[in-house]
Write a structure and sequence with these properties.
- With about 170 residues, the protein is α+β, with helices and mostly antiparallel strands.
- The protein has one domain: Alpha-D-Glucose-1,6-Bisphosphate, Chain A, domain 4 (2-Layer Sandwich), CATH 3.30.530.20.
- About 25% of the residues lie in helices and about 40% in strands.
- The protein is built from five helices and nine strands, in the order βββααββββββααα.
- The strands form two sheets. Strands 3-9-8-7-6-5-4 form a seven-stranded antiparallel sheet, covered by helices on one side.
- Strand 5 and strand 6 form a beta hairpin.
- Helix 1 crosses helix 4.
- The chain is globular, with a radius of gyration of 16 Å.
């Protein structure tokens, strides 16, 4: 369970092939759900800081496909294809993910996003990525900085979904 010389942070209720990241967002569950499932909103916050995203297709329904390219600050484009397995508005999204940087071993996992409504219009967003093995999880954490990247992605979601942004999310092409 190593990432270089450091141990991965323990996550309650996880096993050795999972990464779990959670954050409380100061926005309603419906607002957060829309930010996640509307590609015109998602492009404004998806990915770690410094990344941008182009959504080619996003059909949020069981069996629907989500095709997107993450553009890294280093100029490397990472194409990704996900297939939605479960969609329970506004509570839960489950998808199988495949993608990665050109020339690298593919990254594959199943991702579950849960959206828990909290008091005062807040939402707990939890991401659970399940990999085929501990070694694969460790590789993705080491090579793709999956934990830090996931935390930054949720930070960007929280900033985007904030009530003062909700009225005008801006425009972007998908």
């Amino acid at each position: 369970m190593s990432r270089g010389d450091a141990e991965l942070p323990p996550s309650e209720g996880t096993n050795d092939s999972e990464v779990v990241i959670s954050r409380i967002v100061d926005a309603t569950r419906e607002r957060v759900w829309d930010a996640m499932t509307d590609p015109t909103q998602l492009v404004h916050w998806w990915g770690p800081r410094g990344f941008t995203t182009t959504v080619r297709e996003m059909d949020v329904k069981p069996g629907g496909v989500w095709i997107q390219v993450m553009h890294g600050p280093d100029g490397v484009d990472s194409p990704n294809v996900s297939r939605f397995l479960e969609v329970v508005r506004p509570e839960r999204l489950v998808y199988s993910h495949g993608g990665g940087r050109p020339g690298d071993a593919a990254v594959q996992f199943e991702s579950t996003w849960t959206f828990e409504s909290l008091a005062e219009g807040r939402t707990r967003v939890t991401i659970r990525h399940v990999f085929s093995s501990t070694a694969e999880r460790d590789r993705v954490v080491r090579e793709y900085h999956a934990i830090d990247g996931g935390q930054q992605t949720l930070e960007r979601l929280a900033e985007f979904a904030a009530p003062d942004r909700a009225a005008s999310p801006g425009t972007a092409s998908t």
